Write the structure tokens for this entry.
Amino acid sequence: MASLTHHDITILFVSLGILLASARILGEIARLFQQPAVLGEIIAGILLGPTVFGSVFPNLHETLFPDEGAVLVALQGFTAIAIALFLMVAGMEVDLSTAWRQGKTASVVAFLGIVVPFTLGFVTTWFMEDLFSNGSKHPHLILSLFIATAMSISALPVIARILMDLNIYRTDLGMFVISAAILNDLAGWIIFGVLLGLIDTGGASTWTTGQVLILIVLFTGGMMTLGRGMFNRLLPWIQAHLSWPAGVLSFVMTMAFLSAAITEWIGVHAIFGAFMLGVAIGDSPHLRQRTRTTIEQFISSIFAPIFFASIGLRVNFFTNFDLQLVVVVIVIATIGKVVGCTYGAKWCGLPNREALAIGFGMNARGAMEIILGLLALEKGLIDERLFVALVVMAMVTSLSSGTLIQWILQPKAPVRFSNFLAASRFQPALKGMNREQVVRELASLAAGSASLDATVIGDKAWEREQVMSTGLENGLAVPHARLPDLKQPIVALGLSEDGVDFDSFDGQPTRLVFLILTPQKDNGSQLEILADISRTFQDPKMVAAVFQSRNYTEFLAIIRSHEDERG
Amino acid sequence: MASLTHHDITILFVSLGILLASARILGEIARLFQQPAVLGEIIAGILLGPTVFGSVFPNLHETLFPDEGAVLVALQGFTAIAIALFLMVAGMEVDLSTAWRQGKTASVVAFLGIVVPFTLGFVTTWFMEDLFSNGSKHPHLILSLFIATAMSISALPVIARILMDLNIYRTDLGMFVISAAILNDLAGWIIFGVLLGLIDTGGASTWTTGQVLILIVLFTGGMMTLGRGMFNRLLPWIQAHLSWPAGVLSFVMTMAFLSAAITEWIGVHAIFGAFMLGVAIGDSPHLRQRTRTTIEQFISSIFAPIFFASIGLRVNFFTNFDLQLVVVVIVIATIGKVVGCTYGAKWCGLPNREALAIGFGMNARGAMEIILGLLALEKGLIDERLFVALVVMAMVTSLSSGTLIQWILQPKAPVRFSNFLAASRFQPALKGMNREQVVRELASLAAGSASLDATVIGDKAWEREQVMSTGLENGLAVPHARLPDLKQPIVALGLSEDGVDFDSFDGQPTRLVFLILTPQKDNGSQLEILADISRTFQDPKMVAAVFQSRNYTEFLAIIRSHEDERG
């Protein structure tokens, strides 16, 4: 294999396009079901892999996602870069002060989160030799140690992604789980490095365990002290003297590549270096929000989905599927991890509900088990049956983790007025000439789409309007009413090119009128919707932008695509 | 070669880090010498390649940038993706209406830009058989046709990058050169495809020439009509209904990957598909500026430099260097291309100066010749000597193109006040308590650093200040004076936390005082500096941001990193 041929490059682009598109589509479907997008992305990979697509169209699958050769290597290289960069972004989002504060508790959880599943995994494998044994040339003790290790490693990337998708990454709980997952994974990789040394001297492990430990401490300590200080001092210089934004962007990425190389060389995987670099550089107040956003958006939207979809590409989950083995592995892994981490968290004084959420959060495996399994498979330590069992375990725990955290914590999504709007309640050109006409016009719009009585709504809203005008700054008005029969809030919106006099206190004509109807019993949502509307339109440019939309879809596009800029 | 090993991944990250860092450093050095950054990036690759680094440290070079194996393939895959994405960005920046308007003239330039160098190249090779011949098994006619083709292909990526670096990409001239380069390259690749078919049936060329032509017309026409309309309709829907900004970002990238795959499959290289997709999707007014910026910044700052630096990696420019051959190839290529394009442009009525700039602009070769040369080398059509001559020709024409365009057009860089500031003329805490004290304090600061007389400057500026206050809105003041002895403008800046009364018309205390000294004879620069200052600080947030800087470097960092956001 010399280099990429014309044909290879075609295939590479096709497979990247298909991976990204499928990941996005299934990610969006997962979001529809209130699940983290990453679950959809992993499922996209399984559908594209040998399990489904490969078994229905084996030839086409072999062409698009070959098992060997240049395209495979190029895709592997790309996904290795993708996952390292995603971990850098995850690192940049870490709030160091929170992480420090939780360091001690996180260590306890990480410790028990390794010891319990490791012990359980070791004992089970040791005593169920018939089930796990594969007639390999390695002693059963080594196999037992390997399974024990595989049971105890979490998947930092998957956990980070799930927490981000659920919007709890930057909370105390999120930072806690991440701190524990880092410690857990570092320890897990060190143990795995030792194991590799036992079965294969002179191979992947260039270092003794003691050396690896010293190197990791040196690297992490250096990053958090010298590195952090240096980045904080270099960033203003780079932004002042090099071209903008190329200077700072390439500095961050160069450092990420080199840090990834260092930890990969030490033997604890490239993602740790990239993650620590992200933490060190993200901590600097001199890194502009603009730079963070560019890096974060590009990497989370493009690199991360391609990586997560690529996980399922290589494995067939039907052949080599040994139900008994799969069930034993999943049960042992889950019990060990959840019990260990939950108990650790409770021991440190966390409330039951949060402790359980931490337990299930740490239970997510994924890429790590698959990388580990691949290495072990190559060395002949495990057979295909066991490999598939490990991968299925990784998938099941990842898939259940997000669902269970969500079920336990019930995180509240921010209230957006746009969630209560609909195309049928959007009037791009109001006919009403004065306040009352406009309020009644919107009332009948709202009534029509929700089978309510237009007169009742109109009277209520107009009554409230007469008490005190709801005209706000920037040409907004927000007439509103509470209705006893309503099940959930309803918003109607009318646009008036010329404006209507709503007696607003800045004297400007009103051009955007929101009619907000909320259930009588629901005290909070009216205020939250009002707050969201005024936040969204606090910049007069947004009001002007809305008038460029010709239909409801274009209006929604403008609102949604400005959400992140409000920060 | 099964897959990327632990060691391969380490090397991959190290080499990416080194490539990116060197490209940035040499790019910045190029900018210091008023050259396009891409020149520095290409030179970085030559320094890192076998020519310099490889000949001094051959073993280390072989480890970091191996000639074969998995790391090479992974890096090739990454750079193939990088260049396609860069061309997509270049496409997004195309102003379609300008390009259409110039279509006819551009075709003439493209046509003559192929025919003249092709003829010249063919005749030269045909009659200088001794020099070019390499005892290959292919007839001399084929070799002559190949050299003729190599002489006539421009390098769209290099040209686009040079024009962007010089800030003339979006001008009429820039769009003209790009339109001509697209046509030129499309034709060149079709000819090359035919040639490949002649020496190797059943290989890379799956299509006959007629089929390729039809497919290209179908693809380009489809993109510009159906594709453009579809993207314009889909974008609002995606932004309204999918997650933001992941939805729109992954849509754009998916389309880019698939378009790249289509043109690579047709046989005219992936970059054309990505470019046309960029043009089609970039034309939509529904693609937000925010999305464009994220894509453009990440790709231009990270992917493009890595690609351009990777060009020089594989070739040793000293061994296999045949001076006579190199000189003949450069002279023929340059004369053919410059004469053909300049004449074409003049024929279409362009003024001499612009016609010459177009001629030299189109003369830039680069990646294309190297890809072409590599293919020909693999097929045994050319030998190493000729390959090196082609690569050197590509480098020399690329290196000279930017310099010559700049020398011919003398594009004027925008005046930035920060270019006339210096650390020694920056006073983070003004001592003066009133208008006159502050003006004289800044005058002595300016005088000290430029060996002028502080009293003279102070008197002049204070005299002007008394005629009418220079206090502007937002807490700015801009006292100024013209001095007969001054060679170039000087700006001094003082910050006052509490503010000084400058009698400004919004009644606010002045917190940022700029003293602007310009040469007596120079009419323009005073106004331009004033305009730049008021543009920079039109947003009150910028004034507040400046007060967070503790020294001159941090101040500069804030100013520079906000430049692009002013739009």
